[in-house]
Write a structure and sequence with these properties.
Rossmann fold, single chain, five-stranded parallel sheet, alpha/beta
């Protein structure tokens, strides 16, 4: 939020929202080449679909995007431990310094509210998962050279053991409805996994993931919106910094591919 407040975005054509699956995996260069420079990536670590929806409700009325994109995966369908007051988020970004002080006092650290931590992560080298050197549009794409890959993150998590929150499918439906009512093109892009991780998923993992994927598809199909599923493709390990986060080269390949299925005009047709 500090980045958005400092940059003073008045309006955008394209708004990207989501977790680090959007923050790191959506390539800014590709988006601006496809749609133009009026683009904002409003994503943040660990953001789930409820938080996506509430942020869209806050920012869409100010930014008036014609396209909203979410790049995500199963880990975004969890229950958030945060209790964010989104009315204060709006006041922090768009109103006076009193609300800025109040906002920061509420401990909104996971949404970039700590200026010292934000400044440190801006300056830290981009071979670190916590790097927050935002580009001009709010994205963070990882340089593949000398990236400090964590063996634990590289191995990845069990889908079978993941606790899916049904509420987040309802919030995805709310995002879908909001975009439909407001004549905004909406697309949900399911991100890929690195090839070896995907190849080692158990049958129970795969079954649970198929159910999850079908739920997303059913939501998007209701209003004839785009669901671009890229999780069943083979993506070479060299394109990743862990089991699900792409490096800059991978993010460009990923973004170029899904944008090829979205019209440049942003028409909902």
């Amino acid at each position: 939020m500090l980045f958005v407040k400092e940059k003073h975005f008045d309006s955008v054509d394209v708004l990207v929202v989501g977790s680090s699956m959007s923050l790191n995996n959506v390539n800014t260069e590709s988006v601006t080449q496809h749609f133009g420079k009026a683009y904002l990536n409003l994503s943040s670590w660990g953001q789930n679909l409820e938080e996506d929806y509430r942020l869209i409700k806050v920012f869409a009325k100010h930014l008036k995007p014609r396209v909203i994109l979410i790049s995500g995966n199963y880990m975004d369908f969890n229950e958030s431990p945060r209790n964010i007051q989104f009315d204060l988020v709006e006041k922090y970004v768009y109103e006076n310094s009193f609300f800025s002080s109040l906002y920061q006092s509420l401990g909104f650290s996971s949404f970039r509210s700590s200026k010292e931590l934000y400044t440190y992560r801006q300056k830290s080298f981009d071979h670190n998962y916590e790097y927050l050197g935002f580009d001009a549009n709010g994205g963070v794409n990882f340089d593949p050279l000398k990236f400090n890959i964590s063996p634990v993150r590289w191995k990845g998590n069990s889908i079978e053991k993941f606790s899916f929150s049904e509420r987040n499918y309802h919030y995805l439906d709310s995002i879908s409805s909001f975009c439909s009512v407001n004549n905004v093109l909406f697309a949900y892009i399911q991100t890929p996994f690195r090839k070896e991780y995907y190849s080692l998923l158990t049958e129970n993992d795969l079954n649970k993931y198929r159910i999850h994927t079908e739920k997303i598809k059913s939501v998007l199909d209701k209003r004839s919106q785009r669901f671009i599923n890229m999780s069943d493709s083979s993506w070479h390990d060299s394109l990743f910094v862990d089991y699900s986060h792409l490096n800059k080269i991978g993010s460009k390949k990923f973004t170029d591919y899904f944008l090829s299925q979205i019209p440049k005009t942003g028409s909902v047709q």
